[in-house]
Write a structure and sequence with these properties.
Layout: E1 2-3, H1 6-16, E2 20-24, H2 28-41, E3 45-49, H3 51-57, H4 59-72, E4 76-84, H5 87-96, E5 100-103, H6 110-124, E6 131-135, E7 139-142, E8 145-147, H7 155-165, E9 169-172, E10 177-178, H8 189-198, E11 203-205, H9 213-221, E12 224-229, H10 231-247, H11 254-276
Helix pairs in contact: 2-4, 2-11, 5-6, 7-8, 10-11
Bound molecules: 1,3-dihydroxyacetonephosphate.
Residues 24, 82-83, 142, 178-179, 206-209, 228-232 line the site of 1,3-dihydroxyacetonephosphate (13P).
Length: 282
């Protein structure tokens, strides 16, 4: 149907008590697999790339892949820069045609995070490109970013951060982490509710791989309207390739194992879309 920005799909999710699934993609097969899942579920969807993914193939490659898949799709599709690590990278993504941008100044002191985030939000606003930013620190390892000292989002700081930066959505740190969890994550649900009570823009949950389904649902009930999944997709894709090659060690046609990898990713993304409650919303 359309290659769109993430703003309207997140606003609708926010108003109607579900979340849009945001899925990290690394290559053409993952793009195709995620969009196929969204179409089969009739769900709006966000595809996103981190800076290290961008380094792997370049912004124009992901843009071209996602745009082509979106234009053929019967559901709204957005392309988001995940964890934009600098003003320059955010602007490159914006100029390339990404329809949604995250600037991640969460490692910076509060005032510097505000200044960087505001600069990106001001630059994107005239074209209606939505900007997500993070306050507090989501733990774990995502990309080149290894956070050993996670810090939860302070609700009062969140109010000031949103007012002063003009962002359109806020990633909150409530105890999730990127990557694989050792044991079950303990999420600060009361903190999430308190932030939701004070901040009116859509809220984003990072680090959802490995979070129990019921905890993700509870976060959505408490006001999350975008949920990010990366690690589980990478695992699903790799398992597809491994399983095929184990059965067919002499195979050499990338289309053969690519197809299996896509099936694994599509099946996983369909499950995640159901957990988000975005099925049947497009
Ligand atoms: P996971 O790798 O834990 O799914 O985190 C995804 C994420 O938050 C991407 O920004």
């Amino acid at each position: 149907m359309a290659f769109v920005t993430s703003e309207q799909m997140m606003a609708l999710a926010d108003q109607n008590g579900y979340a849009v699934g945001a899925f990290n993609v690394e290559n053409m097969e993952m793009v195709m697999a995620v969009v196929k899942a969204a179409e089969e579920m009739r769900a709006p969807v966000i595809l996103q790339t981190t800076p290290s993914t961008v380094k792997y193939a370049g912004l124009p490659m992901y843009y071209a892949n996602v745009k082509a898949a979106a234009e053929r799709a019967g559901v709204p599709v957005a392309l988001h820069l995940d964890h934009g690590s600098s003003f320059e990278l955010a602007m490159q993504a914006y100029r390339t045609g990404y329809t949604s941008i995250m600037i991640d100044g969460s490692k910076l002191p509060f005032e510097e995070n505000i200044a960087l985030t505001k600069r990106v939000a001001d630059a994107c606003r005239p074209s209606g490109i939505p900007v997500e930013a993070e306050l507090g620190k989501v733990g774990g390892k995502e990309d080149d970013l290894d956070v050993n000292d996670p810090g939860y989002t302070d609700p009062e700081d969140a109010v000031r951060f949103v007012q002063e930066t003009g962002i359109t959505s806020l990633a909150v740190a409530i105890g999730t982490a990127h990557g694989i969890y050792k044991g079950e994550p303990k999420l600060d649900m009361d903190r999430l509710s308190e932030i939701r009570g004070k901040v009116s823009i859509p809220l984003v949950l990072h680090g959802a791989s490995g979070v129990p389904d019921e905890a993700v649902r509870e976060c959505i009930r408490r006001g999350i309207s975008k949920v990010n999944f990366a690690t589980e997709l990478r695992i699903a894709y790799s398992n597809g390739v491994k399983d095929f090659l184990k059965e067919n060690p002499d195979a050499f046609d990338p289309k053969k194992y690519g197809r299996v990898a896509m099936e694994y990713v599509t099946a996983l993304v369909k499950e995640k879309i159901k957990i988000c409650g975005s099925d049947g919303r497009a």
